[in-house]
Amino acid sequence: MGRKSSMATAAVFVVLASTLTTYASTTYTVGDSIGWQVPTSNSNLYDDWADNKTFVVGDDLLFKFITGEHDVAEVTEPGYDACTNTDTISIDNKGPVKITLKRTGDHYFICTYPGHCPAGQKLKVQVRSETGDTTPGVLSPPRNVASSLVVTISLVFVSIATFVLLC
Ligand SMILES: [Cu+2]
């Protein structure tokens, strides 16, 4: 195989690899510019923040906080309601923390530092699949698979054309 055709083959692989990572997902910074902390004036801050957003499987939640001042624990609904972390699903204590929403249904997050959750540092989000399904525990495929496929196929054709030209 000549140098040119090896280069073309490499190009095809690069194109294919890059299209596989183009699934669209949204990263939401929890609390926006306020970040993840004890709300000072509005104890419903995180409820209000989540209210006007639609979260879909594959989206990320970015919890911005200073390590050692807060943490992020994913808990069960009773844990969220009572601000206890006895049923902790996961806990991250090094800020910032990025959590990918992998399942549909409700997700609950609290800060386990004493007094923080009762003061409002708690977040509940409802995660939907692309079709709007919120049945708990359903794993849905990444978004925009169909459109990515179209892009991939057209890029493969362009790559083949390049390959032919180079030979
Ligand atoms: Cu905290």
Automatic annotation (TrEMBL):
Q: Does the keyword Glycoprotein apply?
A: yes
The answer on whether this UniProt entry bears the keyword Zinc reads no
List the keywords (alphabetical): Copper, Glycoprotein, Membrane, Metal-binding, Signal, Transmembrane, Transmembrane helix
**Transmembrane regions:** 145-166
| Signal peptide, first to last residue | 1-24
Under the heading SUPFAM superfamilies, the entry gives: Cupredoxins (SSF49503)
Q: Which residues form the Phytocyanin domain?
A: 26-129
Q: Name one GO molecular function term.
A: electron transfer activity
Gene3D superfamilies reported for this sequence: Cupredoxins - blue copper proteins
| One GO cellular component term noted in the UniProt record for this chain | plasma membrane
Tell me what this protein is called. Answer: Phytocyanin domain-containing protein
Look up and give the organism this protein is from: Gossypium darwinii
The major lineage groups are: Eukaryota, Viridiplantae, Streptophyta, Embryophyta, Tracheophyta
